[in-house]
Write a structure and sequence with these properties.
Number of domains: 1
Number of helices: 6
CATH topology: Rossmann fold
Number of strands: 3
Strand order of the largest sheet: 1-2-3
CATH architecture: 3-Layer(aba) Sandwich
Structural class: alpha/beta
Radius of gyration: 17 Å
Helix content: 40-55%
Strand content: 5-15%
Largest sheet: 3 strands, parallel
Length: 132
């Protein structure tokens, strides 16, 4: 399905990536699970920073970044500024190499303003109250 030559991106929340990698590490399947995040031509990790990571979890997520570096595209969505990533990854020292690899060959798109999903939801709620 889809356009010839196009690849469907793989989209996961940071929480899901963390959970999958943590479980894989505990069951001795980390190398195999990492492969699922290295294979797609485009990996989208959503909600980076929504839930802070413990250091061990951050180390697991970090393993994906350098392995994809210059091999496949990665898109991250976050409502955190880069200066807050030390808190996101539980360690400013760990956040630095993550940002270094991500920002080396990238385009940063900063979107300011109300959340698209929240805007639509609020409009729907307002429509419901107007009808009542």
């Amino acid at each position: 399905m889809g356009h010839p030559g196009w690849h469907r991106p793989t989209r996961r929340s940071q929480a899901r990536v963390r959970r999958h990698l943590k479980t894989a590490e505990e069951t001795g399947r980390l190398t195999s699970k990492l492969g699922t995040y290295l294979r797609p031509s485009v990996l989208v990790v959503d909600e980076v920073g929504y839930q802070p990571l413990e250091r061990a979890e951050a180390n697991l997520v970090f393993q994906v970044i350098p392995k994809r570096y210059a091999k496949g595209s990665i898109i991250l969505t976050s409502n955190k500024t880069f200066s807050e990533w030390g808190q996101v990854f539980g360690d400013a020292v760990l956040a630095t190499p993550i940002l270094d690899r991500l920002l080396h060959h990238c385009d940063v798109i900063s979107i300011n303003g109300p959340s698209y999903g929240l805007k639509n939801r609020l409009a729907a709620i307002e429509g419901d109250t107007d009808a009542a």
